[in-house]
Design goal:
mainly alpha, 12 helices, about 80% helix, globular
Length: about 260
């Protein structure tokens, strides 16, 4: 875990790139609420972010030490930093879409089979609707939830593997294989992998829990009263999100490395 934190904070230490990327993400965030162009901005934001993750892993694999990594990071241009691994990023993003579609269809099949599709009619009361369904629905959805949780465990390492690829095809096949690569699933059952996943999960859940609470009770009421405040809070939130993204990239990469031993 020490390596993960070292690489994360060393990457942040390149302040020029960190501030530059925070501003780009903030501009895209401001564009996202607009119809049509907003969807393009959202996709472009994800492409850039994952491309940067692939680039950071590329540098990590080719650096002899953390100091050497930092020098390589500083010496690369902004263009390389942002766009060099767009093919890899595109493959991963398409793979994520396919995986999300798979899990959604899987859920629909369960609800259709148990005649419980009505619980999706009102997403705000889904837990209440679920409590009123029959035992079979609750059982199958429980199994679905456990399977999805286990998949998130395997997925972290597979995400790290896909970030290590340098072509669209390799990245796409790597991320998609997370659904059926049973040999890889077995390799994730090691203590180092589990510790990385547990730490990453804890920090991620804690971050989003605090962020959600702060947004609902502090940020949103403040923005309603003073809309100009969003110009300050959006870069701050994007900077924090970027730090978490760096942490996720390195957690995924080093988790995948434990499966190679």
């Amino acid at each position: 875990m020490k390596e993960i934190f070292k690489y994360t904070f060393t990457t942040i230490a390149d302040l020029k790139k960190f501030i530059f990327l925070t501003l780009i993400l903030s501009i895209l965030t401001l564009i996202e609420p607009f119809p049509v162009i907003g969807y393009s901005a959202l996709i472009f934001e994800k492409l850039i972010l994952i491309s940067i993750g692939a680039f950071l892993i590329y540098l990590t694999k080719r650096s002899t030490s953390i100091e050497n990594y930092f020098e390589n990071l500083k010496n690369n241009s902004f263009g390389s930093f942002l766009f060099h691994f767009i093919p890899t990023s595109s493959g991963i993003l398409l793979g994520l879409f396919v995986i999300a579609t798979f899990w959604f269809i899987f859920l629909i099949i369960i609800l259709q089979y148990t005649n419980s599709l009505s619980i999706l009619a009102n997403p705000h009361e889904i837990l209440l609707s679920l409590s009123k369904t029959n035992f079979l629905t609750q059982l199958l959805l429980g199994i679905y939830s456990v399977y999805l949780l286990f998949y998130s465990y395997v997925f972290l390492g597979k995400f790290g593997e896909s970030l290590s690829k340098e072509t669209f095809k390799e990245a796409f096949l790597s991320i998609i294989s997370s659904l059926i690569d049973f040999r890889y699933w077995i390799k994730t059952f090691n203590l180092k992998y589990f510790l990385i996943y547990a730490t990453w999960s804890f920090i991620t859940i804690l971050f989003y829990s605090i962020l959600s609470f702060t947004y609902i009770f502090v940020i949103f009421p403040t923005i309603i009263k003073n809309p100009n405040f969003s110009l300050i809070i959006i870069p701050i939130l994007n900077a924090i999100t970027l730090i978490l993204a760096y942490f996720t990239f390195f957690s995924a990469y080093f988790a995948n490395k434990t499966t190679k031993n």
